Amino acid sequence: MGKKLNIKKLEGLRKSKNVTQQELSDILEMDISTYGNLLRNGDFRVKHLEKICDLFEIQTSYLFDEMENYQTANGNNNAQLIISIKNETIEKLQTENELLRDQLKDKEQIIILLKEKINEKN
């Protein structure tokens, strides 16, 4: 069982907080036509969902509905698409994790060097 982005919840939340589509598209760093396209197809990226959740102070899960037997317009089961999206997300997160580890190592090296300089001065 997967999950499907609930556009009605997103738009209802946006309207209840008096945020225009233009304001939200600016926050998401996209033009309003791109935002409109995302509303039609529900294909928001993780970084967009995170910004939306931060703005409205909600959990990501609020924006999703359980997807039992959800089918595409042509009647095919969506399971393969969901698996593909999840795999893509995992790969992106693994890459980001590697970059963050490298940055952490760099920061640790800087700390060591700074401590050495402090010890030299003492």
Would you write up a description of this structure?
With 122 residues, the chain is mainly alpha-helical. The protein folds into two domains: 1-70, 434 Repressor (Amino-terminal Domain) (Orthogonal Bundle); 76-122. Helix content is 66%, strand content 7%. The chain contains five helices and two strands. It has helices spanning 7-16, 21-27, 32-41, 46-56, 79-121, and strands spanning 2-5, 64-67. It has a two-stranded antiparallel ribbon with strand order 1-2. The longest helix has 43 residues, at 79-121. Residues 67-75 have low confidence and may be disordered.
List keywords for this structure.
122 residues, 2 domains, mainly alpha, 66% helix, 2 strands, 434 Repressor (Amino-terminal Domain)
What coarse outline follows from CA principal-axis ratios? Answer: elongated
Mean pLDDT: 83
Give the name of the CATH architecture of the largest domain. Orthogonal Bundle
Give the domain tally: 2
Using DSSP, what is the number of strands?
2
User: Any low-confidence stretches, pLDDT <50, length ≥5?
Assistant: 67-75
Query: What is the number of helices?
Result: 5
What is the ordering of alpha helices and beta strands?
EHHHHEH
CATH homologous superfamily assignment of the largest domain: lambda repressor-like DNA-binding domains
Share of residues in helices: 55-70%
Q: How widely separated are the two ends? A: 62 Å
Q: What radius of gyration results from the CA coordinates? A: 21 Å
CATH topology of the largest domain, anyone? 434 Repressor (Amino-terminal Domain)
